[in-house]
Write a structure and sequence with these properties.
- With 262 residues, the protein is α+β, with helices and mostly antiparallel strands.
- The protein folds into two domains: 160 residues, dinb family like domain (Four Helix Bundle (Hemerythrin (Met), subunit A), Up-down Bundle), CATH 1.20.120.450; 80 residues, 2-Layer Sandwich (Nonspecific Lipid-transfer Protein, Chain A).
- Helix 1 runs parallel beside helix 5, helix 2 packs antiparallel against helix 5 and helix 5 crosses helix 6.
- The longest helix is centred in the middle third of the chain and has 23 residues.
Length: 262
């Protein structure tokens, strides 16, 4: 288990401090999050926190989707539509009000998570890891990856330094890596094949994808033998790659790939 509960409060506090100091023009700066500006990302963060408190803490039943959810693609489309709707509505709100909402709601969310048991069943499964049911620690960790990477996008756009604690990014990477077996689920390989991922930097680490019995599993640490392929990247590159922040050409330039020759 990866316990991210203590991280929400200080991470949110750092963002609130940055937001309070932004000049008016900074709110409309473009970001790496597609068409979203700085204010759009903040609105999305506020929306996600309010939804989490409403559905999880307050036990409000989530609204039914307008169309049946037949698979992961339909679910992602449904979530994307919810996100789009709120961001558009929030453009009616001032930056000051959005900041006040973030400051308040982020503390409520931190307080809720700080009291949450790690091994309880999660309200929402972590679908990008292929799980139909998840433990609370993984669901909470998934929420922390959302908070961290969207905050990092805002920081990039306004020229603010990265979040101060390298442990936060280390947790983000360790949680996001757990999606690799599901992402590789349709990739065939010989039994016993391994793929190594090495992340350098203060928040880095090593992970190994192993193929056995027609499925991939993830193990923390380097492989025992020579892997079929190895990817090496910095911790800064890793989070951008894992959260769709790099174009293919940029990813190719920033990730060192080697393959075992026969």
């Amino acid at each position: 288990m990866i316990d991210t509960r203590p991280f929400f409060r200080p991470l949110a506090g750092e963002l609130t401090t940055i937001l309070r100091r932004l000049p008016p023009h900074a709110w409309d700066l473009p970001t790496s999050a597609g068409p979203w500006t700085v204010r759009d990302i903040l609105a999305h963060l506020v929306d996600g926190m309010m939804r989490r408190l409403s559905f999880d803490r307050d036990r409000l039943p989530p609204p039914a989707p307008p169309r049946p959810i037949a698979g992961e693609r339909d679910f992602v489309a449904f979530i994307n539509e919810l996100n789009r709707e709120w961001v558009e509505v929030a453009r009616r709100l001032s930056p000051r009000l959005l900041t006040d909402l973030h400051a308040s709601v982020s503390l409520d969310l931190a307080a809720f998570f700080e009291q949450a048991p790690l091994d309880a069943p999660a309200l929402f499964s972590v679908s990008w890891a292929g799980e139909a049911e998840s433990k609370a620690w993984f669901d909470i960790g998934r929420e922390f990856t959302e908070q961290w990477h969207h905050q990092a996008q805002i920081r990039d756009a306004v020229g603010a330094p990265a979040p101060s604690n390298p442990e936060w990014l280390r947790a983000v990477l360790a949680i996001a890596m757990r999606g690799l077996p599901h992402a590789y689920r349709d990739i065939a390989a010989a039994n016993g094949s391994t793929l190594a991922v090495e992340v350098t930097g203060v928040s880095g680490g090593a992970w190994t994808l192993q193929h056995a019995d027609r499925r991939w599993t993830l193990v923390e640490g380097a492989p025992a033998g020579t892997p079929a392929a190895r990817a090496v990247m910095s911790d800064d590159t890793a989070w951008r790659l894992l959260f769709n922040g790099l174009a293919p050409a940029e990813a190719t330039a920033r990730v060192a790939l080697t393959a075992r020759t026969r």
